[in-house]
Each structure stands twice: as structure tokens, then as C-alpha cells.
Design goal:
Helix content is about 60%, strand content about 10%. The protein is mainly alpha-helical and about 120 residues long. α2 packs across α5. The N and C termini lie far apart (about 55 Å). The model has no long low-confidence stretch (mean pLDDT about 90).
Length: about 120
């Protein structure tokens, strides 16, 4: 028997809501997708996730590390080197987020057309 109660993300007090909020963040999804192929340095990750600021990437990586989704590896070198990679738990999140990314790419034309129709009415 689990030490935790049954979780329900639709309940206001459920702690799983914070995980869902983190996962639903656009930068989280992009970072997880980018890290799917292995370890990356901060600068390479920032280049791959086009448009993310250094501060937002730092905050996102810290949050993902805190949640056990990303591991940070610091090397005692000069200059210092830090790499990030998905943990085993983080890899379980990759497939669903990659599927969402693919959905967004495959359906963007329909979404844009719907926006145009909506905007023309309002």
C-alpha cells in the first residue's frame, strides 16, 4: 500500500498539480525534448532551444533538477564545465512531450486558420 493518498490533478490541493504545471510550461517541454539525445552543455542547450533567455533556461533547469527530471554534472575544470541530461524519470516524460510537439507541428495550419476565422468574427 502506498504511503500517499490517491492523487487527482483536478483537486485544488493535490500536489500533482505542481508537476502538471511544470510539465505544461513551454520551456520545460522544449528542454526535455532537446535533452532526449543525451548530455548537453548549457550553451548548446540554449542554442538548440531557440528564443530562451539564459535566466529562463537556468530557472527551468533548476526546476527540472529539483523535480528529479534532469541531472546536472559539474566538472572541476578551467574553465568550469557543466552538462545536463535527462534522468530515468525525465526520459519517461520525453515521449509524451515529443508527441505534443509533433502534434503542434502537424496541426499548426489548422490552428492558424481557426485563429484567422475567429479574429475575423471578433
Amino acid at each position: 500500500m502506498s504511503q500517499y493518498p490517491d492523487f487527482n490533478v483536478l483537486t485544488a490541493t493535490c500536489p500533482s498539480r505542481t508537476s502538471l504545471a511544470r510539465i505544461a510550461n513551454k520551456w520545460t517541454a522544449m528542454v526535455v525534448i532537446a535533452l532526449a539525445n543525451g548530455r548537453m552543455r548549457f550553451g548548446d542547450l540554449r542554442t538548440m532551444v531557440d528564443g530562451i533567455s539564459g535566466k529562463v533556461l537556468t530557472d527551468t533547469l533548476r526546476d527540472l533538477e529539483r523535480d528529479g527530471l534532469v541531472a546536472r554534472h559539474a566538472y572541476a575544470e578551467m574553465p568550469p564545465r557543466v552538462e545536463y541530461e535527462l534522468t530515468t524519470l525525465g526520459h519517461t516524460l520525453h515521449m509524451p512531450l515529443q508527441a505534443l510537439g509533433r502534434w503542434a507541428e502537424e496541426h499548426i495550419e489548422e490552428v492558424l486558420a481557426a485563429r484567422e476565422t475567429y479574429d475575423a468574427r471578433h
